[in-house]
């Protein structure tokens, strides 16, 4: 429990630093995204209310690998068509911010050899 709280606080701090706004944690949603019968992503998505960020009021965020000391995170803003934790993961997978077959319990493997940005600036512009 304490370890999860630390990861949550670090994620909250990362959002505050990256987007220069307050991030208030609202909820945690378990998400298991499937595509063509195969697991694409499984993990927990944290939902934050953003105060002081003009482009969005809600942010869905998660660690790519929360046990890696060089951890990176994905943040997807609630804008149409993204209106849930599940849709945030789908958007991240679609825009290639989230590697396929990643879980919070196993190290990430990038099947195409690309590096993934620690934040989702390109998602903000694409959605």
Quickly count the helices: 3
Provide the structure class. Answer: alpha+beta
Query: What's the shape?
Result: globular
Gap between N and C termini: 34 Å
User: How much helicity do the residues have?
Assistant: 25-40%
Radius of gyration: 14 Å
Give the uncertain stretches in residue-range form.
Answer: 100-127
**Largest sheet, if any?**
5 strands, mixed
Domains (count): 1
Overall average residue pLDDT: 75
| SSE topology string | HEEEEHEH
Count of β-strands: 5
Describe what this molecule looks like in 3D:
With 127 residues, the protein is an alpha+beta fold. The protein has one domain (2-126). Helix content is 27%, strand content 32%. The protein contains three helices and five strands; from the N terminus they run H-E-E-E-E-H-E-H. Strands 1, 2, 3, 4 and 5 form a five-stranded mixed sheet that branches. Strand 1 (22-35) and strand 2 form a beta hairpin. Residues 100-127 have low confidence and may be disordered.
Structure in a nutshell:
With 127 residues, the chain is of the alpha+beta class.
Main features:
five-stranded mixed sheet, alpha+beta, 3 helices, 127 residues
């Amino acid at each position: 429990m304490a370890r999860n709280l630390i990861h949550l606080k670090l994620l909250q701090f990362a959002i505050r630093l990256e987007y220069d706004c307050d991030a208030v944690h609202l909820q945690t949603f378990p998400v298991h995204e499937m595509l063509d019968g195969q697991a694409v992503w499984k993990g927990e998505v944290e939902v934050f209310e953003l105060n002081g960020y003009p482009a969005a009021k809600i942010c869905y965020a998660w660690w790519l690998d929360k046990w890696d000391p060089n951890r990176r995170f994905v943040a997807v803003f609630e804008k149409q068509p993204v209106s849930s934790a599940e849709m945030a993961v789908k958007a991240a997978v679609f825009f290639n911010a989230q590697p396929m077959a990643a879980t919070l319990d196993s190290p990430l493997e990038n099947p195409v050899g690309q590096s993934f940005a620690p934040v989702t600036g390109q998602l903000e512009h694409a959605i």
